[in-house]
Amino acid sequence: MAAGEPGCLGGFYFRFLPQRTFPSLSSREITSRLRQWSMLGRIQAQAFSFDQTFQPYQKDDFVMAFFKDPNVIPNLQLLSDSSGQWTTLGTEVKNIEAINVPCTQLSMSFFQRLYDENIVRESGHIVKCLDSFCDPFLISDELRKVLLIEDSEKYEVFSPLERDEFLFRLFKHLCLGGSLCQHEDMLKPYLETAKLIYKDLVSVRKHPRTKEIQITSSVFKVKAYDSAGVCYPAAKEHEQTFSYFIVDPIKRHVNVLYHCYGMGEMA
């Protein structure tokens, strides 16, 4: 088989799993929140299965094989830059980037320090501050300050490694939202939604001997390039435009979480 033909890279073949649904993105309550955060209709998750043993060091071959696979090409969804409608990748991927994202958090106690540092009051209300801009985001509370402004006094509450964690990234993406995001006054909706999406995407198992809960998924932040430049998740890059591949090596499933920054569905 010639190089570049589907299925030859690293021997991975894929199947789309349309029956695998993600309740964390489709329940009535979450849909209502995503609408408020201007993300509804611009975020989705899809699942694919694969047929080989996967090791994290194979991530580049795995992701390249994914984008070349004849079962992925007609099924992988992304938002069209021109029409704003869901479409498929109508271009040949020449190169990919797959960045390791740490995924070790098993509890939401990770965020307790938001209370301890008075970024959020005991009541759960997010502490307000004077409006400022961190382009393109309006910062009107201490939470967005801690998420975005590196020289703010409480930025170091989370270390660089903690900020890199998949759970933190999910939480931050939800807090920042889309282009017409209406921010929450309370922390709880962000935490609850991040937790539900995280649990929906990430696989865990009990260690057979120690009985400890372990995360078995590997997470990668993915970009793909065609001959003109970045083509996935979108040609126009933005902090809030992303695709994460969450790979379960035991079930041999990969969940793809995609969002493209813009104006979410209103009505």
Can you give a write-up of this model?
With about 270 residues, the protein is an alpha+beta fold. Helices cover about 25% and strands about 25% of the residues. The chain has helices spanning about 25, 30-35, 60-70, 115, 140-150, 160-165, 165-175, 190-200, and strands at about 15, 45-50, 75-80, 85-90, 95-100, 130-135, 135-140, 205, 215, 220-225, 230, 240-250, 255-260. The strands form 4 sheets. Strands 1, 2, 5, 10, 11, 12 and 13 form a 7-stranded antiparallel sheet that branches. Strands 3-4 form a two-stranded antiparallel sheet. Strand 10 and strand 11 (about 230) form a beta hairpin. Helix 7 (about 165-175) crosses helix 8 (about 190-200). The chain is globular and about 55 Å long. Mean pLDDT is about 95; it is low at about 1-10.
Question: Brief overview, please?
Answer:
By secondary structure, this protein is an alpha+beta fold.
